[in-house]
Batch of 2 targets.
Target 1
Amino acid sequence: MKALEQMYENLGIDKGLLSLGREVENSLKERFEKIDETAEYNQLKVLSAMQKNRVAEAHFSGSTGYGYNDLGREALERVYADIFHAEDALVRPQITCGTHALNVALAANLRPGDELLSPVGKPYDTLEEVIGIRPSKGSLKEYGITYAQADLKADGSFDYEAIAAALSDRTKLATIQRSKGYASRPTLSVEQIGELIAFLKSKKPDIICMVDNCYGEFTEETEPTDVGADMCVGSLIKNPGGGLAPCGGYIVGRADCIEQAAYRLSSPGLGKEVGASLGLNQTLFQGLFLSPTVTAGAIKGAIFAAALYERLGFSVYPASKTERFDIIQAVDLGSPEALKAFCAGIQAAAPVDSYVTPEPWAMPGYDSDVIMAAGAFVQGSSIELSADGPLRPPYTVFFQGGLTWYHAKTGILFSAQKLLERNLISL
Ligand SMILES: *Cc1c(COP(=O)(O)O)cnc(C)c1O
């Protein structure tokens, strides 16, 4: 223990802060055991899917050009489908990010005259431009697809009356965001999502229920496709890439929905048959294999951050004792100075670019300046230790990731250290 403490001190962590950190960590032992159990279950789920599909070394050689007959890509998509207990999957490096995956899934399955419904309130910032809530070139709105929204109730529960009222003859697809993203509402559990889907299908049996699964993968033993979702969509530089995937996104679900998505992603007439995997198959398999434990480390980091910042007197969301269904932790820092200090600490703890200072910036897709701390091996990867927050009151930082629990913990201690050095907290 002495050598470890010395190591933290050498890195510049205050003695008092370190002992507070240790106290907080000790209080979380039982929580961490539960998280390890979920990780173990999901590890076996991934392993079983790989074995069932006879993943072999031959699957690791990539294709080039059109990418016809890419056995590795096809095996990877079957593995994803099995993990999600779904009929089919599209898992591609050509899907550039989560927003792109969601746009493909939506644009592919909607037609002019259809209506899209969000029964869980305002969607993630970047989706506003996809949908056309904020005017944007190429939005669904420009193609004559309208949008309706039913907000959650003040306590975060579903407003079934409002949802029923928002359904119309033209409602074709419901988009359900699992994680809270940048909003201050609870993240939905898979169980809650199942209840919502059951309600939607009772009112409109043919409605397509799509779940934005970003940040939710492997946080529970089930996924939304286990409770009736027709599609689950996410990014490979979040949980399911396990920190190794250098890019990519996935859509899993009903075969007909995935078929539509494949024709939209590549081209009518081409669909799933094209899309070179280049050299990425092995990395995408291996990242998926590591994802359950990487995700578990990130959840531990989120809970540790919540517990530590609660002790320091901040409002945190979710609270440290709340059950987790994603890897995001929000802390209301109350001032731009504290938000910048927090991000400076996360940046200083990074393995890459630790010497730079993050500054607020206008980000494409976001409607206010955002500050982001990320010293990642993969640009913008938020399964790696990262923090970001829009520069608007209450100056909430959204903290997520950490390829290992130890690194997540170090980053959080660094963030508090910066607040301490700038006299924004006292111990
Ligand atoms: C990250 C995220 C997205 C968008 O993903 P990008 O990869 O940043 O484009 C969409 N929805 C949610 C809930 C997210 O967390």
Target 2
Amino acid sequence: MVLDSWQMGFSGVSYHSMSLFCAPWKLVAFALLLTCRSVHPRSFDQSYACGPGYDHFPFCNRGLSVESRVSDLLSRLLLEEKLGQLVSSAANISRLGIPAYYWWSEALHGLSDNGPGVRFGDDIPAVTIFPQVILSTASFNRTLWNLIAQAVSTEARAMYNVGQAGLTYWSPNINIFRDPRWGRGQETPGEDPFVSSEYAVAYVCGLQGQEYNEDLRHLTILNGRSSMQNTLKVAACCKHFTAYDLEAWGGYTRYTFDALVTLQDLVETYHPPFKSCIQEAQAMCVMCSYNRLNGVPTCADNHLLSNLVREEWGLKGYVTSDCDAVAVVYEYIGYAASPEDAVADCLNAGMDLNCGTYVSRHAAVALERGIVNVSTIDKALSNLFGLRMQLGLFDGDPKAQPFGLIGPEAVCADIHRQLALEAAKQGLVLLKNEARTLPFFAGHIKKVAVIGPHANSSDDMLLGDYAGPPCITITPLEGLQTFADTIYTPGCIDVACVSDSLVEAATEVVSVADAVIIFAGLDKSEEREDHDRTKLFLPGQQQNLISKVANAAVGPVVLVILSGGPVDVVFARDNPKVQSIVWAGYPGEAGGQAIAELIFGEFSPGGRLPMTWYPESFTQVPMTDMNMRPNPSRGYPGRTHRFYRGDTVFKFGHGLTYMDISETFSSVPTEIYLPICMDPFSVNMLRMNPTPSTCQVPDDHFNNNVDHGAGFNVSMQVRNRGSRGGSYTVLLFSKSQTGDVRLPQQQLVDFKRVNLEPNGGAEVSFFLNPYKHLTVVNEYGKRVLNLGPHVLVVNAQVEHTVSIKLAEAKGNRCC
Ligand SMILES: *[C@@H]1O[C@H](CO)[C@@H](O)[C@H](O)[C@H]1NC(C)=O
Ligand SMILES: *[C@@H]1O[C@H](CO)[C@@H](O)[C@H](O)[C@H]1NC(C)=O
Ligand SMILES: *[C@@H]1O[C@H](CO)[C@@H](O)[C@H](O)[C@H]1NC(C)=O
Ligand SMILES: *[C@@H]1O[C@H](CO)[C@@H](O)[C@H](O)[C@H]1NC(C)=O
Ligand SMILES: *[C@@H]1O[C@H](CO)[C@@H](O)[C@H](O)[C@H]1NC(C)=O
């Protein structure tokens, strides 16, 4: 049904809808439509609005406010024309000189043509592909995240200027990486809500061309809101709102899955990245997801889209649906009674744009039936046209605009390709390094046996989801060849490695090598959009290959794992013949070089895992269980480093270095007095933990980094006694001292990456706002602060206790 509706396309749009391309796979259902690459318009319309002959319209007048330009434009549109604008491939309005516009473009870690807004070829055939997000996140370097986004949006503007891309990008993906099996966990900044929030702010500011100050972690919009017509570089989109992190598992699919989530988990875990994305980074878009939240499809949820996103968080731009998520409301879920009811539900809930065609085809009937009204449609159109105007899409020739001078030479520029290499190097995580086997010295290790299909891999194995054609790709094999002689043998035919037919040959070559480097892990055949894993073990015969090769090796053995999600490699972790393990995520176009440089000691690794590596036994947990907290009575272990107390393969935050580091707290108070009174009611509000007593934090105390008189500095001395320098990542946690499983066992308070000289040191300071950093969320979705001792822990090693007390306890007047 949905497929047919796609095939009908929308007559007002001048390009072939992607469904024509996908039609042969009719039986595979429309799921495929959403993941296969789109076919591009026969003749991509390069013309622009408000060009010669049309620039006399008031809506083209840059001297007017966006509001008045929008209302002028709306006053000129026929109803039919309006309905053609509510979909991702917005129709042309030729009588007003307005070309078609393709809203759907992607910029997750470089541009990609998953949506029809981006088209490679002609002037720009390839772009810089940075590491997949999960690996860049492992750098814990906000400046890096911001610079990547700046580079990506510069390439986007270059593409736009030559008519190969739009200016609305549906990135980043900031859903919490809740379950290790999730096929799209690779696209996200990991499992921790604080890290995801920080990533969202850094990345969105970079994309949108807003100033970003890492130290203040706070941005200032260059110009005031009303005069920012031309200041947005591109518009980012925070997706997928909300509680979306399941593709297809155990008979459930993302299209119909009903995520049952407590208010506590929403406020504490699922929503903070979105809140930061909108409030702090002022992202211009939110995408509602396919799944339902507690019974209601998110795109039809007025509370979520209007009350929370638009009013409470203050979204200024638009809400788009995920692709065909409106059709799903009726066709797949049956939540609405008819197609036009689904359309009305979503528009009335506050969705402005439908990725797909459903709204343009069913809105007229909805209007006739009176279940949606024109003012609701006008409100959506104001959000959409208002943004297009702010992006400069109604200012005539792009080349005459502020970003108009960015030419094709900006794409794949040296500085961008260097940054792609730098990002991979900063993200790589050294998981195991027995007896300091790494780094290798080129003088000692002259000949290496290189094993595994990834080592000489096609782009796909190095780039991950949502990647366009890269400028260049450096395979691991090519990278290693610059340091040593190599003997390469794949060991497995492909990543699935169903057969062990090549294992024997691999064990034979290792005896003539000084060292062995095995590449193993996953690729898009194992984890991707629409495909979750069912196992955490390495696929097929990979484990067998690694064990046999390690056993046969005479020299040291290094295992390099390429994967987005975690894999259970306990067998290798505990095997003394595998001396070193490196996690390389999907390292992007320069990944092979970064890996080789790490192995041969060109730099010291500083990445840390942004997600827990669970053992295979975790697969007994239903992927559909959204609860963060453990429930011992039903054997549910809880999720993420904050709640999961079971065995791990490697912990969140794990990551080794070549340096010789020691850390101490140099200055931290032992007591902090809060200048507020305890609301006696709040003691009951927490319920789960009546002692020590708690303070309910007034909502405004949680915002921003305002200290409200109770902030304090935590300073650390980090010393490197090693003879090589490098960069080092400090993660500061607060730990719960109670054994209460309803409280997080630890929370990430902040993180900082610093550069250390050989035999050098650095002072690392964190400013802590107790209301923001030391609170937990109670069952009513309120932030509460436990009074009494809080234990601060750095990198799971050094501890310090700070006690939170009320000012009145010191005899001060409060409130
Ligand atoms: C505008 O859309 C109409 C209707 O789909 C189409 O016939 C026409 O070719 C389009 N015009 C341009 C300039 O793309
Ligand atoms: C249009 O619909 C919205 C949402 O249902 C409603 O709030 C509003 O009052 C309606 N406006 C008119 C003019 O009927
Ligand atoms: C690596 O792959 C390329 C392209 O698939 C192939 O031509 C080449 O022979 C391979 N290299 C080795 C050493 O097997
Ligand atoms: C924390 O440190 C910063 C920077 O050194 C300083 O400006 C600020 O006053 C300190 N705050 C407190 C509460 O000590
Ligand atoms: C963070 O990333 C930026 C950009 O690559 C880099 O210049 C800086 O040195 C990095 N910081 C650390 C401490 O590694």
